[in-house]
Structures are given as structure tokens and as C-alpha cells.
Amino acid sequence: MSSQLTRRDWLRASGLLTAGLGLSRFTPAKASVPNAPLISGFTNEFAFADDPFANMPKLRARLFANENPLGISASAKEAIIKATEIGNRYAWMEFGQLKSLIATDDGVKPANIMMAPGSSDILMAAADHFAKGGGTILTSTMTYDDLLQRAEKFGAKIKALPMTKEYKFDLNAIKASITPDVKLVYIVNPNNPTGTIIPTPELEAFIREVSPKVPVFIDEAYIDFYEPADRPKLGKLVAEGMNVILARTFSKIHGFAGLRLGYAIAQPDMLKILHAYTNGDFAVSITTLMAGIASYKDIEWQNHCRAENAKARAYTTKALADLGYEVIPSATNFILFPIRMKTKTFEGQMFGQGIGIQTRDFNGQPYCRVSVGTMDEMAIFMDGFKKVVG
Ligand SMILES: Cc1ncc(COP(=O)(O)O)c(C=O)c1O
């Protein structure tokens, strides 16, 4: 298992702390982008006495968590206000409404869908279940670690195979490594942190071949950044009865990272198993659910967010390439690229300028992962980056 950090571990170990402790070369006051908006990294006014984040710098560009910088849609805001009137009621039919919208789009039945407060809940439930009694979870380095670390904690062995030289999951290598002790295959598509995608025909063929032997978990957290027509339609494989679990989230294009909404698409029997480890639907508040329904229907807002993301991503990719940096082509709302200095030094100096990013060390090579923010934030990022790398 790699030594990558979970999101929570990372927050503790990252430049947020070093910057907060004043170890960095730059301070926000020295930053040279005039009138840049102060974007609260963590709102210090709510910090409690021992809060490790209490001294964090305010961020001018919050680009470390792959959030939607444009916020939630006006329609979702309106739904939240309306939902206050029914906040005294448990949600019932509202789940049905959202599930039937999703089911129609994905060509599955509402019984194939389980809602959750973010897709993390689905990942954790799967980790708990598939780790039970040991066995191996097969995946690739480098990918999103939350499910893997949790499963390892609860007794699973993680076998993470090298990616292809294009930073993609090596499906042939995974297929060749399936042994009787493999209990789950975990694939992130598009992948975090590389931003890469697996061609849909390859992924489909892989699931058809592998899922009769081992369940295949496809984490589709960033799927909404594909143009709708290009999206892999893996729901049809669930409809055909295959043993595949799709995990989706509203945290990205819908901007619900704080509101918390996600869902799984899988066989009803599998959902029943996963439900034993989570409260599923009923962990979602009626407020979030009503906002989710409004946002799901708001295609215009989703198209707007996707287009703005693509614009800011193209700008940053080109600006980095112009400086001689080799950016891994990204299909998501973040970009990964190799850097030429130590990760901790880089993080500290970026956070010191009020620019939140993440880093990775992979095969001895340091990388920067920067989320795609607004154009203004990306200009701040590039300005700060140039200062750090000279
Ligand atoms: C690949 C991947 N899966 C799952 C998640 C969890 O998202 P959430 O719990 O906000 O739905 C994330 C969050 O960044 C992610 O990058």
C-alpha cells in the first residue's frame, strides 16, 4: 500500500500547518496580485481553542480540495430556502423523486440506487464490507486512497499495481493479477489525482470480463466533467445484472461538497449489503435532498460549471506548459504535474502566499495537484507559482 494520505491526514500534515506556523518564505501580505479576493481557507472565527487549523492563513485561492469554485446553483439555493418549511419532516417520497430522475438517466431501476451523504459513505461501506475476513483489494497507484486505507485498517491487503506510462489504470495488469483472494477491484474514472480517463470501450470490456469473478467498484466522482454525450454509461451494465458498484457525488459539478450528497448504483443485493454499514438514504437531510433534486434538474448550471472549468483548466495547462512543465492531460477539475522541488517546501511557499494546493511524492518524483478554480484564482496560482519556482 502506498504512503499516500487520506484527505483528513493530508490536511494535518500539509502546508496548511507549515504555512500556519510561519515556516514559509512568503506571507499573504507580500503577494502581488492586487485586490485579490480573500477566500477563507478555514473560517478562523469559528475555531475552537485547540483547533489545529486556528492559525491557518486566509486563502486567496482555495485549490486543494477539488471543489466547485462557482458555488451551488441559484435553483439549489431556492430549494434550500423552501426546504426549511419541511425541515420538521423525515424525507420519504423525496428520495423516490431523485432516484427516479437518476434511474431514468442511467437506465436502471430506483431499486439499483442508494443515496448517501457524499460518496465517501459508499466508499467507507464498501471498504468495511470487503475488508471483512481479510483478502485483497486490487487497484493501481496512484489513486484516491480513502477506500483503500480504510479497508487496510480493517484487515484487507491492498495490491496497487503500477499505472501505464500515460498515468492510466493498467486494466490488463489488473486482469492478470486476479487470484482467488481478490475480493474487490477499485477503479477511479476519471482518476484522482492524475485526472486521466480510461477509454469507455476498454472499461466496459474489462467489467464484462472481470465482474463475473470479482465485484468491480468504479468511483465516478469526476464523471460530470465529461461532456454528457461522451460519458461512459455504465448503468447499462448494472441493468444487465453485472456485479459492478458505481459511486457518484454531488460534491463536484453540483458544488455540494459541504452540503453532502452522493449515491451508489449497484445490484439491489449489493446495496442491501452496503446498507448494513451506513444509514444510506436516511443519512441525507431533506434540505440537501431538495437542493439535490433542483441541482440535478438544472442542466444549464451544470453546463455552465463544466464550461468554466474547461476554460480555466485550459488556461492553467497552457500557462504551465509555457513555463516548461509537463501537465498530465486532465478530464477533471484538477491538474497534476511534476515539480522540481521538494513537496513540503513547495506547499509551504504556496500556502504562505495564500494559495492552497496539494502535492504528492510518487516514485521519487514530486508533483503538484492544483484544483481548477475561477480564472482569477488560476491567475493567482500562476503568479504565486512563478514566484516559488523562480
Ligand atoms: C475520487 C474521489 N472519490 C470520492 C470522493 C469523495 O467525495 P464526497 O464524499 O464529497 O462525495 C472524492 C473527493 O474528493 C474523490 O476525489
UniProtKB/TrEMBL annotation:
Species: Spirosoma telluris
InterPro entries: Aminotransferase_I/II_large, HistidinolP_aminotransfase, PyrdxlP-dep_Trfase, PyrdxlP-dep_Trfase_major, PyrdxlP-dep_Trfase_small, TAT_signal
Top-level taxon of origin: Bacteria
Gene3D superfamilies: Aspartate Aminotransferase, domain 1, Type I PLP-dependent aspartate aminotransferase-like (Major domain)
CDD domains the UniProt entry points to: AAT_like
Family membership: Belongs to the class-II pyridoxal-phosphate-dependent aminotransferase family. Histidinol-phosphate aminotransferase subfamily.
GO molecular function, one term: pyridoxal phosphate binding
Name used for this protein in its record: Aminotransferase class I/II
Entry keywords, A to Z: Aminotransferase, Pyridoxal phosphate, Transferase
Alphabetical list of Pfam families matching this protein: Aminotran_1_2
Aminotransferase class I/classII large domain residues: 64-381
